[in-house]
Amino acid sequence: MSDTEAPFRISISDNELESLKQKLALTRFPDELEDAGRDYGAPLADIQRLTNYWKDTYLSKWKEHEAKLNEDLPQFTRDIEVDGFGTLNIHYVHKKSTVVDAVPLLFVHGWPGSFLEARKILPLLVENSPEHPSFHVVAVSLPGYGFSEAPKKKGFGSTQYAEVGHKLMLALGYNEYVTQGGDWGALITRRIAQLYGPKHSKAWHTNMPLGEAPHPTRRPWLLLTYLLFKLSPKEKAGLERTQWFQEKGIGYFKEQSTQPQTLGYSLADSPVGLLGWIYEKLVNWTDEYPWTDDEVLTWISIYWFSRAGPAASVRIYYEVNNLTPEGFARNIETPIPVGHSYFPKELAILPRSWIKAANPTLVFESEHEGGGHFAAYERPEALVGDLRKMFGKGGPAFGVVPGKTGF
Amino acid sequence: MSQALSSEKPFQISISSFDLTLLRQKLELVRLAHEVDNAGWDYGVPLSEIKRLTAYWKDTFLPKWHEHEAKLNEDLGPQFTRDIEVDGGFGKINVHYVHRKSAVVDAVPLLFVHGWPGSVLEVKKILPLLVEESPDYPSFHVVAISLPGYGFSEAPQRKGFEAVQLAEVCNKLMLSLGYTEYVTQGGDVGSLVTRKIAQIYGPKHSKAWHTNSPIGEPPHPIKRPLLLLSHLLFSYSPSEKAGLERTMQFQKQGSGYFAQQSTQPQTLGYSLDDSPVGLLAWIYEKLVNWSDGYSWTDDEVLTWISVYWFSKSGPAASTRIYYELAQAYPEGIFSGVQTPIPVGHSYFPQDIFVVPRRWIRAANPTLVFESDHESGGHFAAHERPEELVSDLRKMFGKGGPCYGVVPGKTGYVVDVIKFGGRD
Known about the structure:
Chain A contains 17 helices and 9 strands.
C-alpha cells in the first residue's frame, strides 16, 4: 500500500463561513412552554444565546479557533481501503511521544463526539515521565465524521469501522497497539479486539462498560427496581440514571437507527437545529460540565463543517441496528485484556456483577466520584490516570505491547 | 355563549410578505444532506424527492403562493377564530376552525378532528360531500377545528395540555356554535381526542363517535384472559396477519418520530421551526409511508407542509402533544378505549396500526358500526373521501345504527306532508 498520508489543517473556506452566517441571521426560533426547564429538550434561552453568540461573535473569531485546533491537534489524512467499500480518505490526529518506546494507542470517538475529544488527553498521554507510561496517540475521525470521507455504500457496520481503525494503525507502523474508546468507540474498539486481538490489538480500555441483562423483558429496568432495596445508594442512583436514559433519552437513538436520512435533512440545513440536537446531549450526558459557549460552538462546528455533512454521522445507528438487531449488549467478550473506568453519569450503569460476567478478561477497574459520558473531555486527568495505572509499571497491562512499555 | 358576547371572527389564511420572504430566503440557502448509493426509502426520504420538492417549492410553488392560498381558503370555505377559555389555568386560547352548514336545517352537527402531521386541511375533500343534501343519505353541519398548537390556532403556553384539555376545547367550541349535541369523526390524535370527548362529554353532548384509527389492546394473561384464549384457539385471517405485520413494522421502523416527540420535542423543534427542508422531510416521510400508494402531487405536499410552516405557533408546538400524552398516560394511549356512547369504525388496511378485529371489539363494547375497505391508509379523509363519507352516511343514515342519535337532527329534510301540514 503506497503511503497517501498528507498533513491536514482545518481550513474552512470563506464561502462556507459566509453561508453559515447568512443562515444564522435567518434563524426562526420555536416558542417554549412556561417553566419548561430541560423537560421538553434543550432550553430556548440557551439555544438563543448560543445562536446569537455564534452569529455575532464566534464566527468572526473562527480563524482563531481554527488555528488553536490545528495547534493542539496535529492532523493528517490518508486513504484506507475497506473490503467491499473501496477507498476512503480518513482524517486523524497523530502525535508521538518523545519517549521512543511509548505505547501506541488508538483513541476512538463516538456520536455526537469527534476527534476533538482527544484534545485534552493528548498532552497528558504523550507526556514523558519516569512515574508513568507515555503513549503515541492516534485519534481517528470515524468515516462520516470530522474530516473523513463517509462510506458511499450501504452496510458499513462495526466490522468496517474496526477495519479502518486497525488498518490505520498498521499504516502508521503500529503493528501492535492498544485502544481506548467510549460510545461508538467502545463498540468499535471491542470489535477491533475481537477481530485483531491478540495479534495486533493487545488490550483495550473503555469508559462505557457494558454487560448483558439476565432476561430480555419488555421493561427490564422495571424489574430491577424491585431489587432496589438490595442495592447500594450508588447502584440505586446508577439504575435511576439508566432508567432515565431508556425512558426519556432514547428518542434520538430510535430516529437515527430507523430514519437517519429524514433527520439528516434538518441537521444538514439548520445550524440551530444541529445545535439543539447535539447540545441537548452535551448537557444531559455530562456530569454538570460547565460548557463555555466557545466550547459548545467549536464542538458543533466540527459537525457543521464536517467533510460528509452532519447527516452522515447518524447513519452508523441504522447500519449497526440492521446488522446486529440484538443490540450492543451481546457478544461483549474479547480474547484480550480489557480495562474499565466507571463514571457515575454514564448513560447505562449496570450492576457490576453483570459487567464482570460479560467481560471475563477484565483486568482493570477504576471507579470515579464524578464524570459522565464524555470522559476524555470532562475528566481528562482521571481518564489518563486510569490508562497510566492500567498500562504502567505494576499495572495489569504493563508491557502488553512487546518492546513498547511507555518508558 | 350568546352571539353578542362571542369572540368569533371570520378568518382567511393570509400569509404576510415578511413570512413569505423569509421562507424564500431560507429556501435559497438550503444545504442538502448526502445519501448512500441505492438508499431508496430505507434510510428515510430519498434525496431525489427532497431535491425535487425543494426546488419546486422555491421556484414555482412559493412564487404562486397567493393562488394556493386563495384555493385553500376557497376549499375550506368559511373559517373563523374565537377565544376558548380552558380550565386549569391555561387561560384563553384563540382557536381556528372551519364551519360549514348544510342547507338541510336539521343536519347532524359533526366535529372533525385531525391529528399529527395532519391539519384542518384534511377536511377539504369530505366537506362538500358531508354537507350535500339528498333524500338518500343524511347531511351534516361540519365543524373542523385546528387543534391548539396546529394550523391557525394558538398554542397552549403551559405544561400539561393533554387530551383532556383538547377535548374540553372541542366541546366548548361546539357548544359555543349552538351545537349542544353533536357527533364526532377523528383519526390519529383526533381519534384520541374524540374518544376523550366521548368519555367526558358523552352521552350528554357527544352522542356518537366515528374513527378511522380504531385500536385495541393485545391479549394478556391477567388483563384480557378471554382474548388470550381466543388468540390461542382461533387463528387470525390473512388480512389480520398482514395487518399485525404492518403494525410491527411500524413499531420497529417507523416510530422514531414518536419516541423523539414524546421525550424531547423542544430539541426537535429547533429544526422544524428553522429548516423548511427539515420540516418537509419530517412530514413527507409520513405522508408517503402512512398512505396507501396515494399519488401526492407536489402542490398537495407543499400546501400540507405550508400549513405547518406558516402555522400560528410554529411547527414545534404541534409535536408537544406527544410529550403531554406520554406524561399523562404512562400506561400508554392504547388502554382505556371504552366510551359510554356508540362508536363506529372504518378499517383501512394500510393504516399504521392494524390489529385483529377481536382485539378491537374487546376494547370497544359500544361498537355499533364497522366498515372494511380494500385499500386506503392513515389519512382516510384525504385518501378515500368518498368511502369515509359513505361510512358516515351509513352509520348515521336512515336504518343505520346511529340514525337520529342527535335528537331532532337526523340529517334529512323534514317531510312536511307526513305531519299533515297546512297547504
